[in-house]
Each structure stands twice: as C-alpha cells, then as structure tokens.
Amino acid sequence: MAAPRDWLGAVEEEISGRQGSSGVEVVFPSDPATPAPLCPHGPTLLFVKVNQGKEETRRFYACSACRDRKDCNFFQWEDEKLSEARLAAREAHNRRCQPPLSRTQCAERYLKFIELPLPQRKFCQRCQQLLLPDDWEKHREHRVVGDISVGQLRRPSLLLYPLENKKTNAQYLFAERTCHFLVDLLSTLGFTRVLCVGTPRLHELIRLKASGDQKSNIKSLLLDIDFRYSQFYMEDSFCHYNMFNHHFFDGKAALEVCRTFLQEDKGEGVIMVTDPPFGGLVEPLAVTFKKLIAMWKEGQSQDSSHKELPVFWIFPYFFESRIRQFFPSFCMLDYQVDYDNHALYKHGKTGRKQSPVRIFTNIPPNKIILPSEEGYRFCPLCQRYVSLENQHCEHCNSCTSKDGRKWNHCFLCKKCVKPSWTHCSMCGRCALPDHSCGAPKDGCFICGELDHKRSSCPKIAASRRVDKAVRKQKQRKSNKMKMEATKEQSMNHTSVTRRKKRRERAHQYLCS
Ligand code: SAH
Ligand code: ZN
Ligand code: ZN
Ligand code: ZN
Ligand code: ZN
C-alpha cells in the first residue's frame, strides 16, 4: 500500500521549488553603476543564472513582475549595448503597453458612471470594464451585464473575474471568514489606516465596513498591479503599482498619494498588509517593503526612531526562514489564511480546509487573538495563540508545529519534526520514509546544504572571490576570442527575441 501522501509537503516542494531551483536568482548590486532598463512594468531586475559549483554566467535584465515571458518578454544582457533605434522602439513599446486611460480619466469616468440611472449602468464582462453610454456600441457583441448597483460597485472583487495566469498574476481572494477576521483584528488593534499591497478584497471590505457602521472608520489605500481596479476607486484610494520594483505607474503624483497616506497623523495608526503572489521572489519583495517602511519612517519624529511600521505579510509557512532573514523581528502566526479560489486546497482529516498560508508580523503575537471557534487556543508558555493540533513540546519548550499538524519530537535530531518523517540512521536526520539516502535535494548551489539557498550561503563571499579571480584570469587569456563569441551570442539572441516579438505582437496589457 502506498504511504499516505504528504500533501502539505508536496505543496511546499511545489511552491518553494519555483524559487531558485531554475538556477536563476535576482541580484541587487550594492552600487549599481547604471540604472536598470525599463520594461512596461517599470525598472527591470538584474538576474544571474547559477549552476552548482560553476562560476556565475552572464547577468541579464528581465521583467520584475512577469515570470512568464509570454506576459513580458523583456531581455537584455547586463553588458549589452543597444542601438538608438532599438532604444526608441523599446520606449514606444513601453508606452503602447500602458493602460489607455490615465488615473484621473478613470476617476472621472467613475464619477460619471455613478450619476447614471440604474438601467444605464452596464459592465462588459469580456473587457472587464464599466461602460458609459458612449461605449455601448463598441461592446454590442460582448457579454454585458446591466443594472450595476452601488453594492456591486463597492465589491469589485466579485464583479471582476480573478486573474488566473499562474506564473504572473494569479489572484487568490480571501475567503469571507478570513477577510472578516482580518478586518476585525485590524480594528481591535486600533489601526485607523491600512496600506493594502496586493489585497484588493481586504481593501474593499475595510471600505464597506467604514461606510456601513460608525464604529469602524478605517481608511484604506490599495496598491496593486491589476489596473482593472482603477475603475472603481478615486486617486486617493488606489494606485497602480508594481510591488517587485516599487514602481508607481502614474509617477510622482501616485507616489505622493502613498507617502501622504503613510505619514498622516505623524505616521500613527497605520499598518501595511500584503499578500504577494507566492511564486514571487522573496528578496525583491523585501527590498520593496523596506522602501515603503522607509517612506513611513521619514515622517517620524526623531524620538520615535526606534518604532517599526506594523506589517502583516501573508505568505506560505515554509518561507519563514527566508522572510525572517530580511525581517528578523517578524514572527509567524498559526492562523491559517483561507482563500475562495485557491488551487492549493485540500480537505484535511478533520474535514477542515488546510491552508499553508500564514501571517508574518512584527506585532507581538500575544496581542493577536485567534478565534477559538476555528480551533485555536492560547499557549501561556509561548504567550501566543496556536492551533489545537500544535502541542507544546516540553523538550523544545515551544509549540513547534509549523504546518498545523501535530509534530513529533525526535531525540536524535533534538527537535520536533513533521509527523510524516522518521529518523534515518543513514542520513543522520529525519526525513520522509521513502527518501533516497544521501541524494542531494534542491539545496544551496554553493555548498549543497538544504537549509538555505545560494544567496544566503555563508560561503557566498568566498565563492564570489573565487569566481572573480577565475573570471579575471580567463579574461586575460582569451580576451579577444571572448569578445567575438559574445558578439555572436548576442546576435543569436536578438534574432530569437525578434521572432518572439513578432509572435507576441498581440501582447495586450494584463489580459485585457
Ligand atoms: N488575498 C488577496 C489577494 C491576493 S492575490 C485579497 O483577497 O485581497 C495577489 C494580489 O497581488 C492580486 O491582487 C494581484 O493583482 C496582485 N499582484 C500580483 N503581482 C503584483 C505586482 N507585481 N505588483 C503589485 N501587485 C501585484
Ligand atoms: Zn515587464
Ligand atoms: Zn466589451
Ligand atoms: Zn520538540
Ligand atoms: Zn531525527
């Protein structure tokens, strides 16, 4: 009989495997000599292809937001020089890819729309667009729904279909109970402003509550790359934004909206809540969040310089070490974040949905009460709320489960391990019973260790020095030959991208 499938383990592998296993990593030069070139989604990121034990290959720029080349095919070698003509063509392409309407025009359209009598308020499902009478003719053949009520306008996440492009922009919307839990929690904690980064449904629920009852009047600002949302909000409550490079599509005006929002009331009472796409790389996200935090900090007086901007970063539990690498003060809550349309869902033994998604926060966990009716309890020893299955281990002196299942203590490993693991004497550690002994998994590219990736390898500095020395030597040896090879290579690449470009001329902005 086959062993019971370790479902959470499979999810963990699937998602974390998408990060870095292709051998492509993002690099942030400490002193960038030149600004990154621009794609339609703002400044590109610098990537490097790494092979285990080999020297770094050539670095290149690619889109920060789209991991699927079908969505943005930008590619440029770091040391590639482009002709004036190609630069001009790129600029024209970037302009063509921008949304057809400015933020201000969208807001004006919205104001016109709500003035219309109910029978004239139409929405085109094909184009995902609110229609004004002048637009009707153009959408005559499309599926158009009418009588769009104020209630519907306030819940755009129900009106719009969730984007489903797995690689670039999969939208996983919070289930009602999670969304209500978050809104209630934010209000209990006394927040008055919420910066929603990639959380459109939370944004709308906050506003819905604020307009509904007097008790809650939390303000919310949504930053999201999904431009469709700009039809439903004025400029001060939505900015078209890319969270992988901190790019505001509407330039300085939008950046100022965000700055004003963060710095209002001397920065008191504001929290940032973010739920990025899980396939996204952690490091660029962390860099962006640090920029938003810095923006908030600018508005602080000197004597409160030790304070931190409160943050909820919603992400799968197995990114804990990655996140804490960038934000050591964050801890992971046991609360399982549920989604309406998440493919990564299975009914657990209890019939309850098991979600691998958690909240990472710098708010002290004893202040965050998790609902007992959903199976959470307070652990007085750990001073935090944990799930019922998460038992306090007296040897580790903590509630050790990370994934919501009961973990077991292994005396040989001197720590608690997943229930599906057993101790392997060959490997000298706990692992799945059917693991192949000694086989390296997707570990670090430099030293092969499993508990970290190349970018956080303690040996990285040394390996970089070696790389550099090797590179220099090679360069001296065959400078001329290399130059020629390079030329050829980049010409090959150019023709490939040209062909690709032709194929993808139909490229339209965000699946519109
Ligand atoms: N659970 C959230 C939605 C999370 S899905 C809710 O219910 O409110 C991820 C969100 O991030 C989507 O809204 C998506 O449009 C947005 N997003 C994806 N890539 C982005 C990027 N590069 N910059 C900004 N937002 C992005
Ligand atoms: Zn792009
Ligand atoms: Zn239409
Ligand atoms: Zn233990
Ligand atoms: Zn063990």
From TrEMBL:
Name the major location.
cytoplasm
Q: Positions of the region Disordered?
A: 468-512
Record-level Gene Ontology MF annotations: nucleic acid binding; rRNA (adenine-N6-)-methyltransferase activity; zinc ion binding
What are the GRF-type domain coordinates in residue numbering?
A: 39-81
Output a single Gene Ontology CC term carried by this record: nucleolus
- Alphabetic keyword roster: Cytoplasm, Metal-binding, Methyltransferase, Nucleus, S-adenosyl-L-methionine, Transferase, Zinc, Zinc-finger
Q: Where is the composition biased (Basic residues)?
A: 471-480, 496-505
Where does this protein reside within or beyond the cell? Answer: Cytoplasm; Nucleus, Nucleolus
**Family classification:** Belongs to the ZCCHC4 family.
Biological role: rRNA N6-methyltransferase that specifically methylates the adenine in position 4220 of 28S rRNA. N6-methylation of adenine(4220) in 28S rRNA is required for translation.
What is the protein's name according to its record? rRNA N(6)-adenosine-methyltransferase ZCCHC4
